[in-house]
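Hello K.,

You asked for the raw outputs rather than the summary table, so here they are, unedited. I folded two proteins back to back in the same session to keep the settings identical. This is the first:
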Amino acid sequence: MDIAPRFIIHETTHWILNHHMSSKLPGYLVLGTRHPVRSLSDLPDNALGEMGTLLARIQKTMQSELQPKWLYISRFGHDPRFPIHFHFIPVYHWVEDLFCQDERYRVLKNFGAGVEAHTLTDGAELTLFIWREFGESPEPPSVQGPSIEEIIERLRVAFDQKD
């Protein structure tokens, strides 16, 4: 898959970091390898070595620049069209609030009387919410805070300063 240049945040010898092209959630990033492989074991040693440092750097940069409540880092990879890649999903306070207020998602948990909904959410449920509402919905929720374009520029500057 070709990544539109406007979404690219940072590039290294073996990896490309970009904003998720179909997500409307500002700060949802994808780190993908430049190698046409789907398994970590098929990556060259240099790519594996670069990967660990880069994963940590992305996490640290996202946490300091975007300040999400949670940051999910995941590898999903059953689609043969895409080489191995990692998702960095920021869960902001306002995203968790939207999830808790949406009756369609309340059935995922049995919210008990007197128990705050936020304490009963988990990563799988919030990830589902983000994918459905910010990725697949023709009318995604309103975003609170910086736009995708502003986030991309902020992260580009942060990565350039550290090079």
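The second followed immediately with the same parameters:
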Amino acid sequence: MKHTPPHPSTKELRCEVCGQMPEPPKARLTVANVAVMLPIELLVHALVVEAHLPYVAKVLVLALTATVLVIWAEPSAARILLRWLHAPALRHRRQLVAAPSLWRARTLLRDRPGALQRITRALARLDSNILSIHVHPVPGGVLDEFVLSVPGHVGERELLDALHDGGGGSPHVWPTTALAMADGQTKALSLAARIAAAPDELPLAVAELLHARILPPSDAGSKGPDDGTHLKIPTAWHGPVTFSRPGEPFTPAESARAHRLAELAEITSYRPAASPTER
């Protein structure tokens, strides 16, 4: 079933602090007041002109009518035509709600034919667009990472449900930015920031940076071909991690980048937590 973005209500425009509505455009406010007050004023003027009253009484009635209209009719017009008065703000908010947002998604899939197709169909039901995909072979299957562009009204719960319905295990999603689609240098810096925040992300980050796959410990221990398609980097928590990229040997620059990321992860892992006075 296709999701449709909800129409924003005028309640969403109220200030979170004071609860007041924003000031509507002057032109719309003027039109609303004229539409409500002008017929009443014309009727009152017609009755007063035809009435056989003293001049002072006519002026008093007209002044009293104008005062009542200002006190009563103007606020009533604002309430009656509230949605029309704030239509530009509501339209702008609707555009913001419908604007695509970027998410990074990760889920475990069984390494079987059709597994990726099922997950993409589940995501397509949310009108999401897969901008990039990276596959990490892991024991018992593959770990797929996506960069998704989804409608603004789609949130974390909908994405997690879609990944689960598509057969994914242990799904995880988090908001991301256009940096996820950036050039190589920017991507390396983005991955470095990712490792600084979570050092355990090192193996997946290096695999994504080098477009390589992580070898399981059982395969990493065997003697592979000495053709430069295997790269081993040290980690501080569970020994070295080996990466493989068949048919495309790792360059010295790529090896240096991977080792620098490993050093960053090690430094971050052993960095003591800052005390409240140091923050």
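The chain has three domains: 11-93, 100-176, 182-279.

Happy to rerun anything if the numbers look odd on your end.

Regards,
P.
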